[in-house]
Design brief:
Layout: E1 2-7, H1 12-23, E2 28-34, H2 39-49, E3 53-56, H3 59-68, E4 76-79, H4 80-88, E5 95-98, H5 106-114, E6 118-121, H6 124-140, E7 145-147, H7 150-159, E8 167-174, H8 192-196, H9 205-213, H10 215-227, E9 235-239, E10 245-251, E11 256-260, H11 266-274, H12 305-316, H13 320-336, H14 344-354, H15 364-388
Parallel strand pairs: 1-2, 1-5, 2-3, 3-4, 5-6, 6-7, 8-9
Antiparallel strand pairs: 8-10, 10-11
Helix pairs in contact: 2-3, 4-5, 5-6, 6-10, 6-13, 9-13, 10-12, 12-13, 12-14, 13-14, 13-15, 14-15
Bound molecules: nicotinamide-adenine-dinucleotide (NAD) and magnesium ion (MG).
Magnesium ion binds at residues 149-151, 220.
Length: 389
């Protein structure tokens, strides 16, 4: 029996994780769940899975949640960062599924590693902002980190049984999102609805916008570099609009190993939970004869400047990826709120990066400090931009 804490259980990854848990009651139990503000769904999850601990964003929400649970409910309710850390470090928990969105995942994920918990990592922002600190923590506390991101799970599966020294490069695939063929000049006027309309994947709002701007692939390049200990010049991106090949590894003998499947996050989530075994997921089997073709192309960096910004942040190094990540979070939020246009997203990120001199980050609190600075700086740019917009 594997005992789980799920951070971000009401999100897209969180709910898919709970679907897998529900289908395999002989393998998994839920010890703790955490959510932001979606109390209706959260109360249902608590009733269904009876965790020891449930955590929400703040005290006010905790009070409301308590009143929604039946009297005699055995679930303890906590809130805020203290609650997240308590859930992540619960004595009974074996594995923490890190599925909070954004830099908010940093502190509880670090706490889980320090408490010796294995991690199923969906929250790519943790490795983007503090990859060197996380990889060091993982080594020091001797825990396992299983990628949930579909591309990284594909690489993880394609690397099994091979030597790192034999890899010549990895190729991350990217769908290209809803704007793959939109004329570049029209990107200024696309709407929030257009950007949220992803052709292949159903995901949370932030990552869906990141997919439309291809910042998601930029974050994934950085994530892959940390996870698989490879320099950026050995990580390529191919546009593959069908999202059937989830990523590939090319070896020095010219052989390429890829992982394929119907695009459904349940497959990589299940593999992270059940590794090294495989379990049924209900994912629709792949029928290659029903596909009209698989195509590949190089990404157009003029159309997707966020991808270049991600590469730049890694070559600038030190605090720059954390600054880029926070500026992106602010830009995406502002776009979703209708304060700036879609093309302003990369502009805002670049202005924030240009205002920053990289500094070494020696601790998670250093990362949080730089993250806060970047949020303040990009909010100011955003206000100026919003006035012009
Ligand atoms: P989502 O927005 O659907 O869910 C996020 C979850 O985190 C929710 O439970 C929300 O309540 C909670 N949350 C949000 N802000 C919080 C805060 N400040 N404090 C505490 N909890 C908070 O997001 P998602 O699409 O499930 O993505 C989660 C993470 O997984 C992201 O980092 C994303 O990049 C990554 N990821 C998602 C997918 C996908 O298919 N959805 C694929 C790969 C990677
Ligand atoms: Mg992905």
């Amino acid at each position: 029996m594997k005992k789980l804490t799920i951070l971000g259980s009401t999100g897209s990854i969180g709910t898919s994780t709970l679907d897998i848990v529900a289908a395999h009651p002989d393998r998994f139990t839920v010890e703790a769940l955490t959510a932001g503000a979606n109390l209706d769904l959260f109360a249902k999850q608590i009733a269904r899975f009876s965790p020891r601990l449930a955590v929400v964003l703040n005290e006010e929400l905790a009070g409301r949640l308590k009143s929604m649970l039946p009297s005699g409910s055995g679930t303890e309710i906590m809130s805020g960062v203290d609650g997240l850390v308590a859930a992540a470090t619960l004595t009974e928990t074996d594995m923490v599924v890190a599925a909070i969105v954004g830099a908010a995942g940093l502190v509880p994920t670090a706490a889980a590693i320090k408490a010796g918990k294995d991690i199923a990592l969906a929250n790519k922002e943790t490795l983007v902002t503090a990859g060197h600190l996380f990889m060091e923590l993982i080594k020091r506390h001797n825990v396992r980190l299983y990628p949930v991101d579909s591309e990284h799970s594909a690489i993880f599966q394609s690397i099994e049984g091979h030597r790192n020294a034999d890899i010549s490069r990895i190729i991350l695939t990217a769908s290209g999102g809803p704007f793959l063929n939109t004329p570049v000049e029209s990107l200024r006027s696309v709407t929030v609805g257009d950007a949220l309309n992803h052709p292949n994947w159903s995901m949370g709002r932030k990552i869906t916008i990141d997919s439309a701007s291809m910042m998601n692939k930029g974050l994934e390049v950085i994530e892959a570099s940390w996870l698989f200990d490879l320099p950026l010049d050995r990580i390529d991106v191919n546009i593959h609009p069908q999202s059937i090949i989830h990523s590939m590894v090319e070896y020095i003998d010219g052989c390429v190993i890829a992982q394929l499947g119907t695009p459904d996050m349940k497959a990589p989530i299940a593999y992270a939970l059940s590794y090294p075994e495989r379990i049924p997921t209900g994912v629709k089997p792949l029928d290659l004869t029903q596909l009209s073709g698989l195509t590949f192309a190089k990404p157009d960096l003029e159309r997707f400047p966020c991808l270049s910004l991600a590469y730049r942040s890694m070559s600038d190094g030190e605090s720059m990826p954390a600054v880029m990540n926070a500026a992106n979070e602010i830009a995406v939020e502002a776009f979703l709120e209708g304060k700036i246009g879609f093309s302003h997203i990369p502009e805002l990120i670049e202005m924030t990066m240009d205002s920053h001199q990289p500094v070494a980050l020696g601790s998670i609190s250093d990362v949080l400090e730089v993250d806060l600075w970047s949020r303040r700086c990009s909010r100011e740019f955003c206000m100026k931009m919003g006035n012009k917009y």
